[in-house]
Specification:
InterPro entries: TPR-like_helical_dom_sf, TPR_rpt. This is Tetratricopeptide repeat protein. It comes from Actinoplanes flavus. It contains 22 helices and no strands. By secondary structure, the chain is mainly α. Helix 17 packs antiparallel against helix 18. Residues 2-43 have low confidence and may be disordered.
Length: 430
């Protein structure tokens, strides 16, 4: 669905319904205007922060809070650059902080929890967050890490309480971003956009401004508004030209208009490389597509080599390589760990690819059960209904996909339109 979130613990996503979410919209907005990023040259504030922190540690090597801060900065660097090679650096710094101060060091525990979320080790992330909260039960970032982990582990109520507690303690950018995504997952997209704009009001660092703008671009793209999406992505790139999410968003907009030239040069993420490979394959550029899939597999190995595990990405790669049985195996293993809608959708689609539509249907329904209906979820559910001969239900879901976002996929949109055109006029069996 979307998206890589910002700051500590926001590497994972939320899936819980937010208690009293409408009331959150009454939080007073910041009186600080968004940074006028287009009017100034971008500055790598994060690199400067890392350099200052390293200088402080050379002067005072026993400064345990600064070691934790360095770990957090490395983790943020990994997010910004999409480079998991920063994960071991973040871990080393956080563990150095704990070695210097084992008791009462919630800062280092939060970094380790956020790192575990980024590596998709959600049980470990939950453990680190809970330990941090025994040290300081007013640590908003620890609640953020906990919310992310519980969301992925399927504890929706626990995640709701954690994100609400974070909002109570520190209603700033990180909390608003989590709450925004939570609302989006439940189909409350206009409220999600409002909260993301509140997050933007609290953004000063160019990386954070770029993050918020890129998420607003994703929201616009998700409803098929390419013009607004392009504007938001453009502002994000003005704030931080290296923003991978915005670069990817621009490439997707170009692809929706028949232009694939936006993909070469994107930051090396598995999702963008697999997406590009599928587009190349659809354009009968098979050798180029195979090369992209090889790069995607290398990115997966790099993630694993730096302590990560992403069976969902493994499943998506297997599907792109026409290995649906392997995709089912990987998606099932991921589902055993986390019951996020994206995992349910991927498992359903992998089962569909093996012809097991009856088995796929409950997972496809689970993907939309929380209220979110991005176009791709509806498309997959519609095609599964079609495979079962349930023509009325297939028509409903395919029409929903195309009305939600008529540009959701240059490959799948034509398939959806052809499928609709071939359905009986009466709707047939439901």
């Amino acid at each position: 669905m979307r998206r890589t979130l910002v700051r500590l613990g926001l590497a994972a996503v939320l899936a819980a319904a937010l208690i009293g979410a409408a009331a959150l919209l009454t939080w007073p907005r910041s009186t600080t205007p968004a940074v006028p990023v287009a009017a100034r040259q971008p500055v790598d504030v994060l690199a400067q922060r890392i350099a200052r922190t390293q200088q402080q540690l050379r002067a005072v090597p026993g400064d345990w809070p600064t070691w934790a801060a360095l770990g957090a900065a490395y983790l943020e660097r990994a997010r910004v650059t999409a480079d998991p090679a920063y994960y071991p650096k973040a871990e080393q710094a956080a563990r150095r902080s704990l070695a210097l101060r084992a008791d009462g060091n919630s800062d280092a525990l939060v970094v380790l929890g956020a790192l575990a979320n980024a590596r998709h080790d959600f049980p470990a992330a939950r453990g680190h967050a809970e330990k941090a909260l025994t040290v300081n039960n007013h640590d908003a970032e620890a609640y953020g890490v906990l919310a992310d982990a519980l969301t992925q582990l399927g504890d929706a109520d626990g995640a709701t309480r954690a994100v609400q507690r974070m909002l109570d303690l520190r209603p700033g950018l990180s909390a608003y971003a989590r709450a925004s995504y939570d609302l989006e997952l439940h189909g409350r997209v206009s409220e999600a956009e409002s909260l993301m704009r509140q997050a933007l009001d609290n953004a000063v660092d160019p990386h954070d401004v770029a993050f918020c703008r890129a998420q607003l671009g994703d929201l616009a793209f998700g409803r098929g508004d390419l013009a607004t999406a392009a504007t938001e992505y453009g502002i994000a790139l003005s704030a931080d030209p290296a923003t991978g999410t915005a670069q990817h968003g621009m490439a997707r907009i170009a692809a929706a208009r028949g232009d694939l030239t936006g993909y070469p040069g994107l930051p090396p993420s598995m999702s963008s490389m697999v997406e590009y490979a599928l587009l190349l394959s659809a354009a009968d550029r098979d050798e180029e597509a195979a090369a992209q899939l090889d790069l995607a597999a290398a990115a997966d190995r790099l993630f694993t080599a730096n302590g990560g595990t992403d069976r969902l990405a493994t499943a998506e790669l297997a599907l792109a390589q026409s290995r649906p049985a392997d995709a089912v195996t990987a998606a099932r293993a991921e589902w055993a760990v986390r019951q996020h809608p994206d995992v349910a959708d991927t498992l359903a689609w992998a089962l569909h690819a093996t012809g097991r539509n009856a088995e796929a249907l409950p997972y496809a329904r689970h993907a939309v059960a929380g209220g979110a209906r991005p176009a791709v979820y509806s498309y997959h559910l519609g095609m599964i209904h079609l495979g079962l001969g349930q023509h009325g239900a297939a028509r409903t879901e395919l029409e929903s996909a195309l009305s939600t976002n008529p540009h959701f996929s240059p490959i799948d949109v034509p398939i959806a339109r052809r499928a609709l055109a071939g359905l009986p006029a009466s709707g047939g069996s439901r």
